[in-house]
Specification:
It is a single chain. The chain is mainly alpha-helical and 167 residues long. The protein is built from 7 helices and 2 strands; from the N terminus they run ααααββααα. The protein has a two-stranded antiparallel ribbon with strand order 1-2. The model has no long low-confidence stretch (mean pLDDT 91).
Amino acid sequence: MTSGSSERPAQRPNQRMQRRAAASVKQSLRDLRVQLSVLNHQVGMAAELRDIDLDCLDIVSANGPISPSTLARLTGLHPATLTGILDRLEKGGWIARDRDPADRRSVLLRALPERSRDMFRLYADMNTRMDDLCAGYDTEQLETIAGFLQRATSAGREATEKFGESD
């Protein structure tokens, strides 16, 4: 038997274990997505927001101030659909539309801090649970997890963009 053939059987179990571990990660991400979707739906109901309104509010809160066209690009929503969402968020006191100082003809969206506190309160239990969970990991492990999640988010963004191109 050559040394090359003796390496093959050793690689197969490792490859199988790698595939199983990767499948487990993917399944866990799907499970997490579903659970976060359920939580977000419940938070949205408590805040009297539709799921898509909550998503848009989250993007504005994280990236604002941003233009409606940037928000439309980030969400993949048609501008007319987005207008209705922004009207609801503004009416509910969640966001403000401010004139863009660089171009007075356009507006920038920003989350209102008073309502942001309301949202933080609605997610307080989850935030506490995440703090407790993170406390069980050291800094290096948390950095690895954060890096993985950032790369997974990028992969999702790229898949979304590619999916949108096929329309």
